[in-house]
Write a structure and sequence with these properties.
It is built from 6 helices and 2 strands; from the N terminus they run ααααααββ. It is mainly α and 173 residues long.
Length: 173
Amino acid sequence: MCLQAHYRSELEFTWENLVAALTRLKRILGQIEKLKSPDHIRRVDDDDSLRKNFKPRFNKAISDDLNTADALVVLEDMLRAKKAEPDNKLSLTREFDQVLGLNLLNLTRSGLRVVPASASINPDDIEAKLTERQKAKAEKDFATADAIRDELTAHGIELMDGDPLRWEWRISI
């Protein structure tokens, strides 16, 4: 959240802004997780255009009175670049992260989940139910999939379907 604003400007803390920053971080981590996936298409890419295009932009942002807000935009643009080899993106992410200090290559989206002490179900049980639900949906057993969703909802679990890596979830507070 702090990196999204210039260090000299006033930072407005609200829960909504904190959730928005967490969502942005999870989106970045989702892109990085895709790059790390063994299923990701690897290309031979000797062209260093990724570095030539994005490193100067990143350096310019950081050199502009430590403009981390713009530097984050450059990072996101680089991660979305279509014609770039995943290992090159990961290497450049590592370089950018040495400046940003977010530890992006070691964080996971699931590691950012906040589970209240009052939760009536633990993350391992949630993951098991999600696996069961995913299998039911693959077998077109939508009644079972809906029943599992309802069961999770009763425990205060909010599912966000459509995540290409795996369904995301959070516990409603």
